[in-house]
Amino acid sequence: MLSASFTSMKSRPLKKRICFLLKLVCFVSSVLIFCEFFIYYLVIFQCQWPDVEGGAHTGNEETPASVLKAMFLADTHLLGEIKGHWLDKLRREWQMERSFQTALWLLQPDIVFILGDVFDEGKWDSPQAWADDVRRFQKMFKYPLSTELVVIVGNHDIGFHYEMTTYKVHRFEKVFNFTSGKLITRKGTNFVLVNSVAMEGDGCTLCRTEEVKLVALSHRLNCSQQEQNHPQKRCSDAEKPPASQPILLQHYPLYRKSDAECSGEDAAPPEEKTIPFKEKYDVLSQEASQKLLWWFRPRLVISGHTHSACQVLHPGGIPEISVPSFSWRNRNNPSFIMGSITPTDFSLHKCFLPRESRVFAIYWAAGALLVVLVLAHFQLLTPPFYFAQRLISKHKAA
User: Fold this and answer.
1) Average pLDDT of the chain to the nearest whole number
2) Who's near 200: CB < 8 A, 6+ residues apart?
3) At what angle do helices 166-176 and 205-224 cross, to 10 degrees?
4) 318-322 and 300-303: which strand pairing?
5) Which residues lie closer than 8 Å to 327 by C-beta, 6 or more apart?
6) Which range (99-113, 143-157, 312-326, 366-380) has the least confidence?
């Protein structure tokens, strides 16, 4: 009888310890699941597709179902084997994968455009390193059959102009089915995809090839927009896409002096805004920018590269949107652009991802609370006056 009572008394503290340990495990697990999984749903759920004036027009009837839902993101910069630490890779790739997959599940876009610099070390990658980078990208950015993914080339994918080679360009094109100077048309909307790295204007082989393709494409688009009552002989043999002003997509922004006129919470920091941009490095040259605007007369230009947001108006009232980096390695508040687009109109909305500083703040707060709970459980926390009383009594005893 006594032994049974003694065993019962010993088992109670053990049960309390196990119960307390389980509570701690549940607390830590809840914080991890929230910060690494549910927070993406909580934040992206607040994003909504913008309204566009009417739908696409077919005769006299509006067809709102023909509005194209397009997502634009840029500069994912998947780390490579040279500069990428394994822990940094693990953290950044998990963040981007969760953000992308959550956005696809909640928003269900028709098409997603990634505006270059998919990889951080594509310009240096050996064949084996390239294959590893591609494998990781395909895992992170997998997409359903209902969504199309279009990837545009950036300088970190094939190198700056002086590093760009035919081998690197073809390697990129083979994986992503990207062709320089390509036109894609979805729901009556024309998108022109430009290899902006090849817009150097120095007559290099790849540069000449790019310009020839773009001039031919410009001719096709111009023919499609001519009035049917005034056909021209030089357009008779041209395959005409839908008569819709194109949207120009590329990695480098068109020429601007700096980011001084850019505003918003995800614009460049104040100390960087007034730094002049270098042509053919930070932005396209003035000559290349004028060519693209003259050839295509786009209704919208969307670019990346600077890692910060900016909206500028080019001559002729042509707007350009620079999309910030999608990676937390490059900024605290990544985002992507949501576009509702018809052949005649468009409306854009920016969707921010969770701020990394807020995630860290949650972890710090949870860690502090965890320490308090552990100290309280072991009765190591005492009210301040008890602590002072003990100090006084010890002093008197001495």
Assistant:
1) 87
2) 161, 207, 280, 285, 288
3) 40
4) parallel
5) 75, 76, 77, 92, 95, 96, 334
6) 366-380
Cβ proximity of 81 and 120 under 8 Å? no
Residue 227 CB contacts under 8 Å (≥ 6 apart), including other chains: none
Alpha carbons within 13 A on the beta-carbon side of 376? 9
Amino acid at 107: L
- Residue 238: predicted pLDDT: 59
Identify the three-state secondary structure at position 288: helix
The edge-to-edge listing of strands for the beta sheet with 111-115 is: 148-152, 111-115, 68-73, 335-341, 346-352
Structure tokens at 17: 């310890």
pLDDT tens digits for 244-268? 899 999 999 999 999 999 998 999 9
Of residues 147 and 86, which shows the higher confidence score?
147
CA end-to-end distance (rounded Å), the chain:
47
Residue type, 308: S
What is the arithmetic mean of pLDDT over 208-217?
A: 92
List, in order, residues 6 or more apart from 124 with CB less than 8 Å away.
80, 82
Residue bearing the bigger pLDDT, 353 or 11: 353
CA distances from residue 297 to 222, 279, 316 in whole angstroms, order as listed: 9, 21, 9
Residues 6 or more apart from 171 whose CB is under 8 A from it?
130
C-alpha angle with apex 13: 7 to 16, nearest 5 degrees?
Answer: 130
* Helix, coil or strand: residue 219: helix
Q: What are the structure tokens assigned to 192, written together? A: 């022109």
> pLDDT tens digits, residue range 218-250?
988 988 776 544 555 567 665 778 888 999 999
Residue 350 has which token pair?
């920016």
In whole angstroms, what is the distance from residue 376 CA to residue 69 CA?
A: 53
* The one-letter amino acid at 112: V
Instruction: With both helix axes pointing from N to C terminus, report the angle between 2-33 and 356-377 in degrees, rounded to the nearest 10.
Output: 170
Reply yes or no on whether the pLDDT at 153 is more than 50: yes
Residue 276 burial (C-beta neighbours within 10 Å; 0-12, 13-18, 19+): exposed
> And the tokens for 110?
């028709």
Phi and psi at 383, nearest 5°, equal -55, 150
Distance CA 43, CA 392 (A): 52
Total residue count of the chain as it appears in this document: 398
